[in-house]
């Protein structure tokens, strides 16, 4: 997908701050410094719309980016950073869980995992949350350029086993340096938007039938 228009919209903390235009939302979740901002920048072919930082834990809100007036990327706070206080971690956890539970425009969460490392307990918890709330997930395995190609399969298998993935989960090997996986991620996003639109239409038709039968 060619992106000609992309803009930062808001850093939101409360639901009252979330956009109200009902565009499909695709959230990015992962541990601090896993490469979420770099992923966004590579997907939209911009260098610094999403600000990358060498300081883990910098993102403390839900950062909304509107893409082509067709969808939002929602950048979650990075988790698992030791210098963040326990109180702040709990606040972030409540904010994210409330979002996952209640955010109707949310169509998919992209769970970002560093290919070099085994998924953390926080990664596993996030994956389990997504399954519990029946939210479609795409696992994006970043920093593929950091290990030899010959080790890709071994590391992918480790990630699948640790998370306990199911065959229906989309998984993409990605590199923000080389662009590996960019087109595949966009294909998954576009397909999910089409699926969600069809689901909404089916639900509306069912509601009409239910009303007619009353």
TrEMBL record:
Domain EngB-type G: 22-195
Gene name linked to the record: yihA
Domain of life according to the entry: Bacteria
Family: Belongs to the TRAFAC class TrmE-Era-EngA-EngB-Septin-like GTPase superfamily. EngB GTPase family.
Keyword Cytoplasm annotated: no
Required cofactor(s): Mg(2+)
CDD domains in alphabetical order: YihA_EngB
Protein's job: Necessary for normal cell division and for the maintenance of normal septation.
Protein name: Probable GTP-binding protein EngB
Keywords: Cell cycle, Cell division, GTP-binding, Magnesium, Metal-binding, Nucleotide-binding, Septation
Keyword hit for Cell division: yes
Lineage: Bacteria, Bacillati, Bacillota, Bacilli, Bacillales
InterPro entries per UniProt: G_ENGB_dom (IPR030393), GTP-bd (IPR006073), GTP-bd_ribosome_bio_YsxC (IPR019987), P-loop_NTPase (IPR027417)
